[in-house]
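Risk register update: the risk of archive-format incompatibility is retired. Evidence:
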Amino acid sequence: MHKCKVCGYVYDPTMGDPINGIEPGTPFEQLPAEWRCPVCGVTKDDFVELE
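Archived output:
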C-alpha cells in the first residue's frame, strides 16, 4: 500500500481506485503515469510505500 504525503489517502491495490477507473488488483507501480490522488490531486511522486 502507498500513502499520500499530502492528504493521507492510502492506495490499496486490493481495492484499486474505482473513481478513476483503476481495477482492483492493480499494483501501485502499474498505475498510469497520469494517475492522481483521488482526494487531493497530487501525482504518484507524492506517495510513500507503507511497510
